[in-house]
Amino acid sequence: MVDGLTPREIQILQELAHGHDEAMVAAQLSLRVGTMRATAYGAMVKLGATSRLHACCIALRMGIIE
């Protein structure tokens, strides 16, 4: 875990940062869209972000994702 993020949260942020939409991310990671949303929200809270885009920007800046 990086800064309290789970590996799944990092995967989701990485996919979102690459421009994939919710449905595509959920399908790629074999998740339901609701589960993907909840996991993304958990990452947002841990990073102190106000949106998924903000969470991706923070994670990029911190070197958590590429």
Structure description:
This protein is mostly helical and 66 residues long. The protein has one domain (7-62): Arc Repressor Mutant, subunit A (Orthogonal Bundle), CATH 1.10.10. 67% of the residues lie in helices and 0% in strands. It contains 4 helices and no strands. It has helices at 7-17, 22-28, 33-47, 52-62. It is globular and about 25 Å long. The two termini are 16 Å apart. The model has no long low-confidence stretch (mean pLDDT 95).
Helix-strand category? mainly alpha
Mean pLDDT: 95
N→C terminal distance: 16 Å
CATH class: Mainly Alpha
Quaternary organization: single chain
Write down how many β-strands occur, each being a DSSP E stretch of 2 or more residues. Answer: 0
The largest sheet, given as strand count, sense and whether it forms a barrel, is: none
Tally of discrete structural domains: 1
Provide the CATH architecture.
Orthogonal Bundle
So what's the overall shape?
globular
Q: CATH fold name, please?
A: Arc Repressor Mutant, subunit A
Corresponding CATH superfamily: Winged helix-like DNA-binding domain superfamily/Winged helix DNA-binding domain
> What is the helix/strand order?
HHHH
| Estimated helix fraction | 55-70%
Low-confidence stretches at least 5 residues in length (pLDDT < 50)? none
